Amino acid sequence: MNLALRFLLTFIFALFLLPLTACDGSRSRAAEVRAQDDGSYLFTAADGRRLRVRAYGEHMLRLQSARAGEDFFADDRYEMVERHDWPSRLALSESKGEVRLGTAEGLTVIVDKQSLAARFEEAGQALLAESAPVSWRDNTIATRFTYDPAEHFTGLGHGYFARAESLDLRGRKVRRNYGSSHLEQAPLIVPFYLSSKGYGVFLNSTFANTFNFGEDSNYGFAIDDNGFGGRMDYFFIAGPKLGQVLDRYTQLTGRPRLPMKAMFGLQLSDKGHDHNSATPSDEQWWRRKVAEHRAAGFPLDHLVNDNRWRAAGGQRCVSKLAWDPERYPDPEAYGAWLKAKGLVMTLDFNRCIAQFSDGWKAAFNLPESDNIDFADSAPDLTNAEFRRWFWDIFYRTAFDPALGYPGEALWIDEFDEQGAAPLDMVLANGRSSAEMRNYWFFLIAKALVQQGWDKSGIERRPFVWVRGMTAGAQRYATLWSGDIEPSYKDMRSQIRGMQLAGLSGFPFWGHDAGGFHDWERGLGPDDPMYVQWSMAYGSFAPIWKPHGMGQSRWPLDRPQSVQTFAHYYARLRYELMPYLYSAAHRAAASGLPMARPMLLAYPREEQAWKRDLQYLWGDDFLVAPNTADDGEVEVWLPEGGWVDYHSRAPIGGGRVLKVPAPLGTLPLFVRQGAVIPRRDYALSTAFVDKSVLLLEVYAGASGCGELIEDDDVSEGYRKRGEIQRTALQYDQPSRTLTIGAAEGSYRGAPTERNYKVRVIGDPAFVCAEINGEKLSARTDGDNALLLDLGRYPLRETLQVRACDPPILQARD
To answer: How far apart are CA 509 and CA 497, in angstroms?
Structure first.
């Protein structure tokens, strides 16, 4: 073919293609980019698609997509994001058909000006890239990313009953949605996940979601709007540490609400003592059980009432929300008795009693509730009048301070069972069930706390637990995992579910320790499982609530051999309450959970992504529950020095151990360098003497900690900054423990404190000095010494050193 003919054919071919290219404007014409008044940038493609990019501070970027003719959703359409008034400063630059938008701290999104596909970098490191722009097909709106088979993923709340097979979601397709049947209880619907590469993504949508983390080598997520006009709207959250990602996520969606300290004590219920029991519960039943329990030396803080306190029958679904005048003739006097005994009380509400309770209106029901269990008590949570009634009936029944009635917490049950409602049903707020069902739990929490409790003038902190939760509602309430089974399989799932809840903004998650009920056999946990789960693992869960049908969960109702273990773990939990409560404060302030997955601290370690039946408890404990009656537990100890809590023997890290774990032994390790604050044992957190403190030092490495205190009850810590912090630091080279001067204060704080120090693993502390005076330590079991420092003002800094070199002094 000669050159002239080749040129002619090429020219004709180009003419043939020209109309196709001209029609496909997205490939031939770059998007228009315009700065907006709110600091965002708006991209408009040739085919009308739009992309809005906005910074939320320095470390988060929001991307919203819309088709031609669609508007972006208003910021207040959902309230999962707590506020939108973040500083939005993005620097723009263009090159090679791309637009780069970056924050001052180095977070950058690069947008292709033709396709509108985006990719994210931090400090020049590539983290996440859309492999294609947002797509719309039928009712599905999807985003796809480039898949890296080495990348790990975690988060997304948890599924029904918190049954999780793994914390690592790599290679899996995951959905987190409201159930459609009666037996799909307690979903934690949090469309937020974390990556081992050091970033997180939050999908700001309540429509049904699907996340794919590598099934068939695909990575991305999608929403199914059922034809009701959803929008793709997601936040990219930078780290690089996963703890920073979680901190920023809970800045975005709201900090978890800290419960009263009493909620971290032992919680026991009257389940199984209902109207047809041989020992039905009433006020006298509770008084007797508490007296017997306390007399046997068991602690108790929280009484969980299950139905029997209610009037008109006191049955699960045949009763009303009111105090029964026969079983509780004088609620005010009963409330005074509870307070004197250092006890708080939960009042429960089963959805099925709504129709019998004062002030209920049939108009509160969903428009189409025929297929729902208890169809006459199936409220539309978008109905503002229903939400006002819901809080008001609790307030009138028990929570009005003028009444003096018991009631410090709310247990909201069975609102996870309205899934049979049709998706196309239009609700009171004008939106579809398809859009709102994932949002139910948020609306419950908002009604009872933000619209109710917080505006009522009640000074004590709210504690509301619901069977199911939604992203963002952690700033009002928490959840428990439903009617789980007393099996070791479900125990394992709860250990993982607890960690997933913490990774999703819900550090104060709860479960029925020991399992709720075995429906086939009609039993609760047997004695070995009660020891291993209800007591051992339960005492190292954020909320300790052995509860369920079948055998009694009260320790005193178990054999003496079981009671021995119950005493041990009850004492351990209560003595460690200052450590536990300090970790709870950090969770409320930063989102860093009390029960921390290994992967959160060691995301680059492959072992950390495998070892999801062990976890860190606060900064310094490592817990590995035995999920069998006996035998041994395989434990991964990260690099560094550790101490076996029970034997006090030092153990080197960076390896996997097979740890003997006979019945009642919870494998428990403490990081060398840890300074653990403890209190004397008390039968209630209300009875603790805060002027006495024991500091347990695990020698062998340097480390630090912090004691965080408040009045244990009120919102003063949050509203007025009434909080006290004491820095704790141990320096191994100089064998020096520094107890910092207390900073801040709170109502009722002591001004002086009697200190004791237990040093584990360093015999040099047999002698110490303070203020020039030598102290002699006494042996305190294997490998430990105990020093009694005496009483000192909290506003002084104390230093404790072993005698060689001479070392204990106090200074301002």
So the answer is: 9
> How far is the C-alpha of 809 from the C-alpha of 249, rounded, in Å?
43
Distance CA 110, CA 133 (A): 13
Question: Looking at the chain, how many residues does it have?
Answer: 812
pLDDT (tens digit, 9 = 90+) per residue, 179-194? Answer: 998 889 999 999 999 9
Report DSSP state, residue 714.
B
pTM for this model (two decimals): 0.95
Phi (first) and psi of residue 572, to 5 degrees: -65, -45
Structural domain containing residue 23: 1-29
- Whether residue 51 is found in the same domain as residue 180: yes
For 531, the token pair is 């020891």
Measure the CA angle with vertex 542, ends 539 and 546; round to 5°.
50
Apex CA 177: angle with CA 540 and CA 156, to 5°?
45
What count of other Cβ atoms lies within 10 Å of the Cβ of residue 721?
11
End-to-end CA distance of the chain: 96
Q: Which of 501, 525, 560 is the last residue of a domain?
A: 560
Residue 109 and residue 53 in contact, taking contact as beta carbons nearer than 8 Å: yes
* Residue 764 contacts residue 804 (beta carbons within 8 Å): yes
Average pLDDT over residues 560-587: 98
Query: What's the rounded Cα separation, in Å, for the pair 499 and 488?
Result: 17
Which of 40-45's residues contact partners 24+ apart within 8 Å by CB, and which partners? 40/88, 40/90, 41/90, 41/92, 41/99, 41/101, 43/99, 43/111, 43/113, 43/116, 45/114, 45/116
Q: Does 439 lie in the same domain as 363? A: yes
Is residue 636 a part of any domain in this protein?
Answer: no
Position 490: which residue type? D
pLDDT in tens, 388-426: 999 999 999 999 999 999 999 999 999 999 999 999 999
The DSSP symbol for 730 reads E
One-character DSSP codes across 465-512: EESSEETTGGGT-EEB--S--SSHHHHHHHHHHHHHHHTTT-TT-B-B
Total domains, the chain? 4
Which residue carries 């409790």 as its tokens? 453
Q: Are residues 16 and 49 in the same domain?
A: no
State phi, psi for 749 to the nearest 5 degrees: -70, 140
Q: 801 forms bridges with which residues in the sheet?
A: 736, 769
Same domain, residue pair 392 and 469: yes
Which tokens hold the place of 493?
A: 């799932």
The DSSP 8-state label assigned to residue 123 in this structure reads: T
